[in-house]
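Board notes (copied after class):
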Amino acid sequence: MNVPSNTAQNHTKIFFAMGTAVSLTIYTDAPDEQILDESENIVKHLESLFSTMRQDSDISRINIAAGLWCTVHTDTDEILQKAIYFAQKTDGAYEPAIFSLVRLWDIKSKIGKKETLTIPNEKSIREVLCKCDWHNIETDGNKRYRMLNGAEIDLGAAAKGFTSEKICKFFSLKNINSAMVSLGNSSIAFMGTKPDGSLWKAGLKVPGALGNEYFAVVSLKDKFLSVSGGYERYFVKDGKRYHHIFDKKTGYPTESGLESVTVISDDAALSEAYSTALFVMGPETALDFYKQNDGFEAVFVTSSKHVYCTDGLKSNFEFCGKPYGYLYRG
């Protein structure tokens, strides 16, 4: 095992993939740029399988096939099986078959624009909502998938989580046991501990803050952290914010009473899917879901600036949000 010394240097590679800045950092006494280069290739390979922006990706091929069977790569099969499981567990609060609604709203193209912006009409929303159901994803159990009723897949942030976990497994094979993988600020993997043996410190940013303003710090080892909120990708029309996380029950961006949800887990795809699902559920339903399911811890920030931390994380949770108007409710 390549255990780094206290003086181990960090070696970082930054590049753009999956719609965000990817940062891969390993700690080792002997620099090995090849490991980071191979890691970048893994990320870009998985992006080529999962992206809805590429017509030749596995996900796009399934969507375009419109009901015909498509054979997919082993990695695609693995993440689709996970996505279906998470959708079932959350009763569709995490919905992998939501791409028709995502395309209808087209939030991404409207971000930051000032000119006249349009909101989908009720008829259009109703027409696509009937497609947004994970039950429309059919598999024969042999890496073949097809979509029913015109449904389309968008894996969302779960694809980033899955990718983070693959990178950590690759690092482990290369005898790296201290590393950090970031696919944007809201999807981070902490592998092992820091070289000196101390836990990683992750600051939880005040929702919507532009600077380094944190309402809490969590200490982590061998964990994946995911954050969902409606304050980064959105547009404003007539004074109302429309963000990118949708409630398929209404067809609109969710208004659940939460500003952000942070999920921490050993399973990266789970942390991503559940942070989205809990954000859609709202505080009460999300807390009930936590009590009935294991495998993760969470931090909730409500619209009234109350912060809740689940029991299993409290010993590694430090609240520091009082200067920003937040109240810690335990």
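Comment from the instructor: Residues 1-5 have pLDDT under 50 and may be disordered. The chain is about 30% helix and 30% strand.
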